[in-house]
Amino acid sequence: MNLDATDRAILNRMQDDLPLTTHPYAAIAAELGISESELLNRLTRMKDERVITRFGPFFDAAAMGGAFCLCAMAVPPGNFETVLTKVNAHAEVAHNYERTHRLNMWFVLATETPEGIEATADAIERETGIEVLRFPKLQEFFIGFRVAA
């Protein structure tokens, strides 16, 4: 897919904060000199064409009284899809990745309370019969990651 200058401007702008208004897309479209419908159509097209895979807010669960935890499991390869379905059925699972390692399933839990991490991980263990290794965040580093389009 070829991105034109407007697509690139949209991608670059959408990585910054959204305006806290009732119509944030209209405000961004005005900044870019296009209509809100054009902005939304272009975002939809880029998502459909897999130029972008996700667009949404990132909430700091810890700042809101919740918690994050990186987790890993050693899932028997023949059971991977079954376990994946059970793990992903939990709304607290924010990401889930398969890796080529003994610990082949890695996911992030994001819960409303710190106690929610243990409760969700314990539930996954009961449902799958597989230990959930927990790697809680000890220190946070903000790197301000941006990708120039």
Cα-atom Rg, whole angstroms?
Answer: 19 Å
Q: Figure out the total of helices.
A: 5
| Uncertain stretches | none
Order of strands in the sheet with most strands = 2-3-1-4
CATH class of the largest domain: Alpha Beta
Order of helices and strands: HHHEHEEHE
As a percent range, the share of helical residues equals: 25-40%
CATH architecture of the largest domain: 2-Layer Sandwich
**Shape descriptor:** elongated
Strand element count: 4
Secondary-structure-derived class: alpha+beta
Distance between the termini: 13 Å
CATH topology of the largest domain: Alpha-Beta Plaits
Major sheet details: 4 strands, antiparallel
Strand content: 15-25%
Summed up, the domain count is 2
Mean pLDDT: 91
Folded structure, characterized:
There is one protein chain. By secondary structure, the protein is α+β, with helices and mostly antiparallel strands. The chain folds into two domains: 5-48, no CATH class; 62-136, Alpha-Beta Plaits, CATH 3.30.70.3460. It is 38% helix and 16% strand. The chain contains five helices and four strands. It has helices at residues 5-14, 24-32, 36-48, 80-88, 114-128; strands at 67-73, 93-98, 105-111, 133-136. A four-stranded antiparallel β-sheet has the order 2-3-1-4. Helix 2 (24-32) packs across helix 3. The longest helix is centred in the last third of the chain and has 15 residues, at 114-128. The radius of gyration is 19 Å and the shape is elongated. It starts with a helix and ends in a 13-residue tail after the last strand.
